[in-house]
Design goal:
Blueprint (H helix, E strand, L loop, with lengths): L1 H14 L20 H6 L5 H17 L8 H18 L7 H18 L5 H23 L5 H26 L5 H21 L1
Length: 200
């Protein structure tokens, strides 16, 4: 019974990105008054952002040599997501936001599928570079709204929780399954390819 429950839990976490509604560009939610709750829910409104955030946590756990390696990539992503969100809120025009979000899914998916190990600072830099574009997209959507600062805080908190969900799944799968992470990584990578084809 315990094995069944654990397997079900793992499957739900790994499949989490597939449960979200599609999101490319705007999420369709009216943003007249932003706030913590709206910002917190923001990363859950699109499969592209959701898959990237869970994927970063999953890869971090799968590739980590030990517990101290777990947080490099998630912290790098969250920090640069914040930088991107502030940039978007300020109205700074950043080119190729959607193509870079799509490319991030391709790269993160391949990292998960291959369990590629990178030094901590390099891992943080790689995912952080892509996180800027995720943050910019969110910042554009919240730009001009009252309470945008609280919304950004909620968004970063939600991002951290999604990373934790990915880390939890990855840590549990490290010694139990090699196939499931490969399938999940390949699915995210293929989704990235599909998005790249749409925005090309």
């Amino acid at each position: 019974m315990r094995l069944l429950s654990r397997s079900t839990f793992l499957a739900l976490i790994v499949a989490l990105p597939l449960a979200a509604a599609a999101h490319v560009g705007a999420d369709g939610v009216a943003h007249h008054t932003a706030g913590f709750t709206q910002g917190f829910l923001h990363p859950f409104t699109g499969i592209d952002h959701l898959a990237a955030m869970v994927g970063v946590g999953l890869w971090s756990a799968l590739a980590a040599r030990g517990a101290r390696d777990l947080l490099w990539a998630p912290l790098g992503f969250a920090a640069m997501l914040l930088v991107g969100a502030v940039t978007g809120l300020a109205g700074v025009q950043v080119p190729a936001v959607e193509p870079m979000i799509a490319a991030s899914l391709l790269v993160v998916g391949l990292l998960v599928a291959t369990r590629l190990r990178l030094p901590g600072p390099v891992a943080a830099a790689v995912v952080g570079a892509f996180a800027v574009f995720h943050g910019v997209a969110h910042g554009y959507e919240l730009s001009g709204e009252t309470g945008a600062g609280a919304a950004v805080f909620g968004m970063v908190l939600a991002t951290a929780l999604l990373h934790i969900a990915g880390i939890t799944a990855g840590w549990l799968l490290r010694q139990r399954s090699t196939l499931l992470p490969r399938i999940a990584g390949a699915a995210v990578a293929l989704f990235g390819v599909a998005l790249l084809a749409q925005v090309a």
